[in-house]
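Changelog entry: the Transglutaminase-like domain-containing protein record was regenerated in this release. Current contents:
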Amino acid sequence: MVESRAMSLGRNALLAVLMAPVLAAPAHADRAAVEQAAYADLSISAPTAQFMTVCHGFGCQYRVELGFSLTDQATLRRLMAAGKASAASERKAVAAVGAWFDKRIAPLAGTAGHVARANRDYMFDKGQFDCIDTSRNITSLLLVLDELGLLKYHVVAEPEARGHIIDFNAPHATAVLVEKGSGVKWSVDAWTRSYGQAPEVMPLDRWKELD
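Regenerated structure tokens:
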């Protein structure tokens, strides 16, 4: 998976990208902290409600610019409206937005054929995503929702990682939401899903226990 970044980054540099958010992530990160952790090492501009950079091809080796039209913003509002009742329903709405987003970017990035859990066998395929791509893309999407005022029960946190070689598990990164009030962190992981499927949303503690 993350080994795919070898063409543009060394192994140590890639692990630094994965681990940086974990080493200094406050319980409730502000937007500036999220942007620094998610994008600085990849030299990506932070997203806005009108624009974001989409990573693909493993390790953000390929990039495409996505403009959010008024129609796109209306779709986001409609999908998130289903999540107004509770934190749990908001997470379901975020997952639905993730499925829409995957279809929205496919014509631009050429990713309509992407598979779940794309590993090093796909490292030269610009139509696939590794976890660096998906964790940054979903973080950007969540920040867009936040800027549009569509997150009522959650705030966006830095991407986090598991499997730092020393525990013999392959490194893997995910986007993260923090539930307001309780402070519980939730993983929003699109790497485990194929084209058009909603990202997996689960407590981050449980996600960190997975292989």
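Strands lie at 51-56, 62-67, 154-162, 172-179, 185-189, 200-203.
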